[in-house]
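Title: Prediction job returns without error message
Component: structure pipeline
Severity: low
Priority: P3
Assignee: unassigned

Description:
Job completed but the reporter wants confirmation the result is attached to the right record. Sequence as submitted:
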Amino acid sequence: MHQYHWLIQNRIRFQRHRYEDNAQHAQSRNGWKLRFNIGIVGLHTALRLREKFPESKILILEKGVLPQGASTKNAGFACFGSLSEIMEDLKNHSEDEVTQLIQKRWDGLQLLRKNLGDAVIDFKPFGGYEIFLREEESFYNECLQKIPFINEVLKPVFKNDVFSKEVDRFGFGNVQEYTIFNPFEAQIDTGNMMQALLKLAISKDVLILNQQTVTSYVDHGDKVEVVLKDFSFTSKKVLFATNGFANALTKGEVNPARAQVLITKPIENLDIKGTFHLDKGYYYFRNIGDRILLGGGRNLDFERETTTEFGQTEIIQNKLEQLLKDVILPNKNFEVEHRWSGIMGVGNSKNPIVSQLSENVYCGVRLGGMGIAIGSLIGTELADLV
């Protein structure tokens, strides 16, 4: 994981130095189409804008040295929701809404694969599994009973059954006999994805400035004035793709949700391949070669994890390690090599927000933890508002 992040970091630093001089002249220029955040949404927005406006100047501003959001920090799940997550969604959304949302996630994944190619993003269709702890007997049985119903709800999207039960063949500890299998789920390398998107954007003459914090902006009707710490300039259009950092922008419709993640050192004779969901998706893990990546646990402390601050907490890290020891890797020795966190954007609705905020200002945010699936599509939709 370090290696992929470092490649991106080097690329971003190179671009910052390359375009630093250009920024000093940006104060007096009009005609910019400005994008905030170099994540999956932001870069797809810029690429779509370039298709629509081949002569326009397109500038991306990023607060961090490398992307600050979830695009480089997520687990690389090419998924659209486990069975239990979809059951939860149906409690707050109609069947049509859930079907439309999953259709968007599925379409977004196909768009990402089309734009970058499976080999580039290391797309591996190992399938996805939902596992249940022994103490979840009642909920486990409810999920098994709901398989035919959920498959019917999703039939318009996939034309075939999505979920089926399979005997646990991975040797997990303290789990129910059956897993719920989804053959349409896969995993990708998000480091490769971001590097490819950055290269593509740069090749399309999209300018990128890193370590830039916007302090204010004003939509004057015919242009938007953007103020940063060291300089200011005007742009014809401004588009925000800041997801988990969009609380103020959306007047509370988007809340930050920190996701803590860890990855092990290589494990000898690891026989786990796929993406795995536990506890209604609040925990998730996958193999990365012969390592295990595991994340989640914000349901242990929702209040503290509703933050834009990066970091780890003892309660969640202890739980993740306990799951590794007792459930995922029983009777196996392992060591944790690295820990990190990312910030997702969530809210009362699972539907993303793609909207016009004022005459010349737009946003595409609230991806609900499904940025890999839906990000490319939301970026395209955001650009198409202009």
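Comment from assignee: result matches the submitted record. The domain at 2-73+191-247+349-383 is CATH 3.50.50.60 (FAD/NAD(P)-binding domain).
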